[in-house]
Amino acid sequence: IFAGRDHIAKLIFECCEELNLRVPEDISVIGNDNVSWSDASKLGLTSFEQPVLETGKLAINVLCDAIENNTQVQSKYLLSKLIERTSVSK
């Protein structure tokens, strides 16, 4: 299961526990942010790490540039990094 945010993965872990499903033996779980669930690394959640600080800085710079130069905002892309832990079976 791919969770849009790590705190959603937490809910998936909790549901799995209630249903007696083991992570990763019965089901694999991947999160997406590596910041919104404090126990994620301790419980082994594999997650895509989002560059939160860089995203904020880029957003401010793009917005300021658009306002100062009266230009349209161009799409920008930042890479995320896969943090492999134990919530995915191999």
- The number of helical segments is 2
Average residue-wise pLDDT: 94
* Coarse morphology: elongated
Query: Uncertain regions: pLDDT < 50 for 5+ in a row?
Result: none
Taking the sheet with the most strands, its summary is: 3 strands, mixed
What structural class is derived from the secondary structure elements?
alpha+beta
Radius of gyration: 17 Å
Strand order of the largest sheet: 1-2-3
Distance between the termini: 14 Å
Q: What percent of residues are in strands? A: 5-15%
Counting DSSP E segments of at least 2 residues, the number of strands comes to 3
Q: Indicate the percent of residues in helices.
A: 25-40%
Order of helices and strands: HEEHE
Structure characterization notes:
The longest helix has 18 residues, at 52-69. By secondary structure, the protein is of the alpha+beta class. The protein is elongated, with a radius of gyration of 17 Å. Helices cover 34% and strands 12% of the residues. The protein contains two helices and three strands, in the order H-E-E-H-E. The model has no long low-confidence stretch (mean pLDDT 94).
Give the topology, please.
Elements: H1 6-18, E1 30-33, E2 46-49, H2 52-69, E3 81-83
Parallel strand pairs: 1-2
Antiparallel strand pairs: 2-3
Structure summarized in a few sentences:
By secondary structure, this protein is an alpha+beta fold.
Descriptors:
single chain, 90 residues, alpha+beta, 3-stranded mixed β-sheet, 2 helices, 3 strands, elongated
